[in-house]
Each structure stands twice: as C-alpha cells, then as structure tokens.
Amino acid sequence: MRYRLTFVAGLALGYVLGTKAGRERYEQLKKSARQIAQNPAVRNTAETAAQQGRSYAGKALHTVSDKVGDRVPASVAQRVRSLRERNVDGSPGDDWGTSTT
C-alpha cells in the first residue's frame, strides 16, 4: 500500500511539474489533495500509522539499549536511561514533536 501511495504521489507531482495546463489545473489538484487529506478515514489511518511507528521505535530503543549495554559513551548511555525511565510510566511522549492524539 505504501509503495502504491508513493507512486500515485510521484505521478501527481510529475504531472503538476510537467503540465502545460497552467495554474487552473494546479489549483484543481491542490483542492483535491486537500479534500483527501481532510477525509476522516485518511486522517485516522495516518494517526494509527504514526502511533504504531512510535510504538515500534520505543521497542527498538529498549532492545538496542539492552543489547548495546556499556559499549557506548557515558553521555549516550545516560540519555538512553533517561528516555527509558521517562517512558516506564506509560507516557506516550516522544522527542520528535509528533502528536499523541
């Protein structure tokens, strides 16, 4: 699905950049893209994907930090420990500035 979406987005971008239809067609495509982005089903799917990504990133953080152990500089190890302790209470916060809603 991701590759299909990327292909369609690339196709649309290529059309917009290569078209001679002018501003009118560009505005029409822009309006269509905005309507798709505001669709509740699309927004829910995007948010679900973002939440899964945050979950997998958290699991990867713990797995990597457990396996790497003391082989990293102290400053990095301290940062990893602080992230682990902060997320132990189940808080969904992250350092990426992404929404948790």
Considering the chains and any ligands shown, give keywords for the structure.
101 residues; mainly alpha; 4 helices; 0% strand
Short description:
The chain has 101 residues and is mainly alpha-helical. It is 75% helix and 0% strand. The protein contains 4 helices and no strands.
Can you walk through the features of this model?
- The protein is mainly alpha-helical and 101 residues long.
- It contains four helices and no strands.
- The two termini are 24 Å apart.
Secondary structure blueprint with pairings:
Blueprint (H helix, E strand, L loop, with lengths): L1 H17 L4 H15 L2 H29 L5 H15 L13
Number of strands: 0
Helix content: over 70%
Approximately what portion of the residues adopt beta-strand conformation? under 5%
Q: Give the CA-based shape.
A: elongated
Question: Regions with pLDDT < 50 over 5+ consecutive residues?
Answer: none
- SSE string: HHHH
Q: Over all CA atoms, what is the radius of gyration? A: 20 Å
Structural class: mainly alpha
Q: Characterize the biggest β-sheet.
A: none
What is the CA-CA span between the terminal residues?
24 Å
